[in-house]
Amino acid sequence: MEFKELLNNKLLKAGALLGLSLLSFTNTQAQTNVTVDTGATWQGGMLCFENNQTQDYLWYNDWGIDDIKTVRNTTNNTIELYPNYNTYVATDSYWANGAAGNKILQGMSYVVNDGLVGQQFTFSGTVESNNLSSAYTVYAFVKALDANWGVLNETPFPLNEPGNFTISYNAAQYAGAAHIQYGFSVRGINANPVTMEQNGKMVIAAGEPQTTNPGGGDATTIPVNASATWVGGMLCYENNQTQDYLWYNDWGIDDIKTVRNTTDNTVTLYPNYNTYSATDAYWSNGEQGNKILQGISYVLDDTLLGENISFKGDVTSYTISSAYTVFAFVKSLDANYGLIHETVTPITSTGEFAVNFDSDNYPGSVHLQYGFSVRGINANPVFMEQNGNVVIGQAVAAVKPVLKKAISVYPNPATNILNIASEDVINNVQVYNMLGQQVININPETANAVLNVSDLKAGIYMVNTTTNGKTDTTRFIKQ
Fold it and tell me: What is the DSSP code (8-state) at residue 37?
């Protein structure tokens, strides 16, 4: 139950291996918002890990939120998040190492709302204050779970500075979802109660969603660009009730039937036609196709990693048959192109769309893709005119200059050298491991800092970069 995709069913596992979506959904999706409500029924759970470099998993138990140490203030309608204190026992070496704790605990406080299954919704709130020790990491999260409470997907959002957070979530993506949880997680060493004041807390209140810029700061606008290098892939499923997954192959976008017009800067999406064969029962059932195909056309741009981006376009024509579902997507992938996270926006009519994605939220991301998917039965070419298409151009808003984040950390993953570049002079850089231990602390006093990370152990690290009195937090992976 770490913050990564935990994919339990066969189709989603296949998608993780391929780095491709196995999503399907209807063209009409509900949109609602949930936020902090202390009057709701809050539940808790505690994960325990060894206090070592690999933080080996030990156990999980259901806990009351008071035992986790999550405090609900019903007068102010706020949630107060603390480290855990009730496990510390100075005389027990399992729980204590002298005056300090000796286990990594991850306390989760959440609401179960199964009414959100199948819906597209947002979970939002406002961090009113945060003086929690940097040794602890806090996330807001949304989870989809199956009927046996197995995790199908978890989307985390790191909480650091005061301000709004918004998680956009499409629960219709996850076949077999039976439960939805949303809430908060605090992870770090079990704490000695005598250090409670020094360790601080985070206070979270209700807040309206801010979906146009979910990660905070200026978003990098990615417009539709027909002249970019587009790559394709095709997923194939049985044409039955469960649409069982069959295979995936890399395909050229012309074979998928995605047409780029570089003169008009448009991308036109069609159903797939080149697989239909009237004499082959595998591919046809009389005049109709006999397989479900999902053609994916995308651009791979790893330079966008660490950016808060918005992939935008303008649907100028929408005549495609209702038998086909179309969506725009952005996805982050690991070094082996395994899917870490995907955000989708259904395309159901003409008009502008945006897929907002803060790749900095997903540790382990090495590749980033954005593009389009068309899913439906493989089509008979004689019906090409009736089946229609979708024509997508550049959104008016997308012609604005691209805005970059003030601070860039690269390469990510890093082996020996980590570069930090800023528009302003970098006053201080602090690097912490996932145990909350500071491993680097330097004062570069330059806009381009170079860190030697060759001696660090492999893993995920937090980087706090201070410029002009403001601290920016990001992550990098040490290989």
Answer: -
Is 175 strand, coil or helix? coil
Residue of 396, 399, 393 whose CA lies nearest to 225: 393
The pLDDT score that the predictor gives to residue 304 is 87
Residue 396 CB neighbour total at 10 angstroms: 11
Residue type at 320 in one-letter notation: I
Q: 0.70 cut: is pTM over it?
A: no
The domain made up of 407-478 has a fold known as Immunoglobulin-like (2.60.40)
Residues 223 and 394: beta-carbon distance below 8 Å:
yes
CATH architecture label of 221-399: Sandwich (2.60)
Instruction: Give, as one character, the DSSP assignment of residue 414.
Output: B
Hey, what are 237's tokens?
């499923």
Amino acid at 221: T
Q: How far apart are CA 44 and CA 46, in angstroms?
A: 7
Structural tokens at position 462: 């937090």
- For 177, the 3-state DSSP assignment is coil
**Sequence spans of domains, the chain:** 10-205, 221-399, 407-478
Write the CA distances from 259 to 178, 286, 307, 392, 393, integer angstroms: 39, 28, 28, 10, 12
Q: Is the peptide bond before 223 cis (omega within 30 degrees of 0)?
A: no
Q: Which two tokens stand for residue 50?
A: 């060894």
Cα distances (Å, whole numbers) of residue 330 to 174, 257, 298? 17, 20, 9
Tell me the β-bridge partners of 312. Answer: 223, 354
Matching residue, tokens 């295979």: 247
Bond from prior residue into 381 cis (ω within 30 degrees of 0): no
Gap between the Cα atoms of 228 and 246, Å rounded: 30
Maximum CA pair distance of the chain?
79
pLDDT digits (tens, 9 = 90+) for 203-252: 999 988 765 443 344 578 899 999 999 999 999 989 888 788 888 999 99
Residues 6+ apart with CB under 8 A from 68: 44, 46, 84, 107, 108, 109, 186
